[in-house]
């Protein structure tokens, strides 16, 4: 029987990530800038690694600030490049991602635990989420969701990038870069045939994937992050294949 005391904070973290990433993912897909999430998440991760390199303790406010500053800087940079070179924005996003990823590797090169830190950043440690952080994450997620649903397109391109950076900064330290990207893109892609119930279907897919992945992880003693990504991909494929225009 899975240990519920471990699973519930992880499930709560996943649902909080999904709360903001499902609607933002639909917008990202509509804008045709799919890999922005991966790039901004990697830049936020670079901020975390830079904070570690400076000697700051994990989960400290200094690390949070470093991640947020890095993500905001990356978002502003991508907003600027979209204005200057809109026709090659996806290529620019790819270059930014690979630069941030390799800068992180260089910062961790002399760290004896560098490989472990990099793995945690990519796949996350969702089973070991600090429950004490969840109320603050819930408040931040509610603010992001309210801003997006309340103002939406009126916040403009720069407003979207900044709101997106804020959401990614929070989520990447909870669940890792891979899960952040999967939660943003897979529900939006899988529900694209739907109109009336699209967001609800995206939320249902994300919630089911997080729940199934966490339970399978506890039962099989396997990494939770990859299992959740796989569960979301399988569920997303089923939703895409069997859904009709509605």
Shape: globular
Q: Runs with pLDDT <50, length 5+?
A: none
CATH class: Mainly Alpha
Question: How many β strands by DSSP?
Answer: 0
CATH architecture: Orthogonal Bundle
Rg from C-alpha positions?
Answer: 17 Å
Describe the structure.
It is a single chain. By secondary structure, the chain is mainly α. It has one domain: ABC transporter involved in vitamin B12 uptake, BtuC. Helices cover 79% and strands 0% of the residues. It has helices spanning 4-31, 36-53, 61-84, 89-108, 114-123, 134-151, 156-175, 177-190, 198-220, 224-242. It is globular and about 55 Å long.
Blueprint of the fold:
Layout: H1 4-31, H2 36-53, H3 61-84, H4 89-108, H5 114-123, H6 134-151, H7 156-175, H8 177-190, H9 198-220, H10 224-242
Helix pairs in contact: 1-6, 1-7, 1-8, 1-9, 2-3, 2-4, 2-7, 2-8, 3-4, 3-7, 6-7, 7-8, 8-9, 8-10, 9-10
Question: What would the keywords be for this entry?
Answer:
246 residues; mainly alpha; globular
What's a quick, concise take on this entry?
The protein has about 250 residues and is mainly α. Helix content is about 80%, strand content about 0%.
């Amino acid at each position: 029987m899975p240990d519920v005391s471990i699973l519930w904070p992880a499930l709560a973290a996943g649902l909080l990530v999904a709360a903001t990433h499902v609607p933002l993912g639909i917008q990202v897909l509509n804008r045709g800038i799919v890999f922005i999430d991966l790039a901004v998440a990697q830049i936020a991760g670079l901020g975390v690694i830079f904070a570690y390199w400076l000697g700051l303790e994990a989960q400290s406010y200094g690390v949070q600030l470093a991640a947020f500053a890095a993500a905001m800087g990356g978002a502003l940079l991508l907003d600027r490049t979209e204005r200057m070179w809109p026709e090659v924005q996806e290529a620019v996003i790819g270059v930014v991602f690979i630069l941030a990823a390799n800068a992180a590797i260089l910062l961790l090169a002399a760290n004896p635990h560098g490989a472990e830190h990099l793995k945690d950043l990519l796949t996350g440690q969702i089973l070991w989420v600090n429950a004490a952080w969840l109320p603050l994450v819930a408040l931040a997620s509610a603010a992001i969701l309210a801003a997006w649903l309340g103002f939406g397109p009126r916040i403009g391109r720069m407003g979207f990038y900044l709101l997106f950076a804020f959401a990614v900064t929070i989520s990447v330290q909870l669940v890792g870069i891979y899960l952040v990207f999967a939660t943003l893109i897979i529900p939006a892609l899988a529900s694209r045939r739907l109109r009336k119930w699209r967001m609800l279907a995206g939320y249902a897919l994300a919630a089911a994937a997080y729940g199934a992945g966490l339970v399978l992880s506890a039962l099989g003693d396997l990494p939770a992050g990859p299992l959740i990504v796989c569960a979301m991909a399988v569920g997303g494929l089923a939703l895409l294949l069997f859904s009709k225009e509605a």
